[in-house]
Amino acid sequence: MGCFATCGKILLVVVNLFFLVIGLVFFVAGFFCKFGNDTLKTYYQGALDSLSSSLSSSGFGSVDLSSFDITEVIGTLGVALIVTGSILMVITIFGFIGACCKVKCMLIGYCILVSLVLIGQIIFIGILFGNKTLITDEIKNPLKSSIQSDYQGLNGTNIVSLAWNFVHIQVKCCGVDNYQDFTGATQWITHYASLGYTLITPLSCCKELPSSTDFSCAASPTTSNNYKDTSCFDSIWDLALGNVGLMAGIFAGLGLFQLLLIVFGICLLLDGRKNRVGSSPPQSQRDRRRKRWDD
After folding, report:
1. What are the boundaries of each domain within the chain?
2. Tens digits of per-residue pLDDT, 9-65?
3. Average pLDDT for 135-143
4. DSSP letter for each residue of the chain
5. Distance CA 159, CA 68 (A)
6. pLDDT tens across 160-187, in order?
7. What would the pLDDT profile of 236-249 be if each residue is shown by its tens digit?
8. Is the pLDDT of residue 88 over 70?
């Protein structure tokens, strides 16, 4: 085996073993996002306690938040992680076994799969940095629709209300784009005649949750007392993909690395074919064997 093919084999085995572990981590993380509410609850219980305390002191009485299940909010993310982890594990198993045992069909499958992933990444990057609204609008529109139809306010107990109140408190933001996403929400009570307040933003958008029946932070919101103009979507997006230069560098480096893996896979395939050809007996020797067999 040539030196280049040997290095390629070692690299493919090590890299695919590493990404096999990464795929397993993704799969486990997705499983917890989808089914591990009891485990995750220890991390968000503080926000629920703060919300419950504010509801009680603001005159809403005791609101049962025990039914809040964060897996209903991040379940889609969990499914995405499970699918991503599963695909990653399948690809790396092809690469690991194909390189380690020089199984031709698995090496071919590995090169094809990595090529498809690379093409998908190129398309995704083109959309992401060329016209990201094609992606973001598909995410934003259903979120805004759910607010309009299901958001009930600070004391809401359905999953949409609990989820948005939770996000507002944790991320320090207000709405998908801003507070206007809540304007006209059919189930949201905004007018409190007895207190003399008409809410413009949800109470959970206040920088300090109300500790009394003073709702001025939501009825007369300003940037000093309310997160009214801070987009929850943009805040989370910037946290994940906000540094364009860094993300472009990561994607470019990942793409070049994948291309290198494909090249090494092809080299192993060619080296294996060359060895098979080189190990074949000379034509004259095969003819003598055939003649003896015929005799």
Report:
1. 3-269
2. 888 888 888 888 988 999 998 888 888 877 777 777 777 777 777 777 666 666 666
3. 87
4. --HHHHHHHHHHHHHHHHHHHHHHHHHHHHHHHHH-HHHHHHHHHHHHHHHHHHHHHTT------TT--THHHHHHHHHHHHHHHHHHHHHHHHHHHHHHHT-HHHHHHHHHHHHHHHHHHHHHHHHHHH-THHHHHHHHHHHHHHHHHH---TT--SHHHHHHHHHIIIII--SSSSGGGGTT-TT---EETTTTEE-SS-GGGBSS--SSS--HHHHS--TTTB-TT--HHHHHHHHHH--HHHHHHHHHHHHHHHHHHHHHHHHHHHHHHHHHHHTSPPHHHHHHHHHHHH-
5. 7
6. 888 898 899 889 999 999 999 999 999 9
7. 888 876 666 677 77
8. yes
Per residue, what are the HEC states of 164-186? HHHHHHHHHCCCCCCHHHHCCCC
Work out whether strand 197-198 and strand 191-192 pair parallel, antiparallel, or are unpaired: antiparallel
pTM above 0.85, yes or no: no
* Three-class HEC string of 227-245: CCCCCHHHHHHHHHHCCHH
Residues 252-267: b if buried by 16+ CB within 10 A, e if exposed = eeeeeeeeebbebbeb
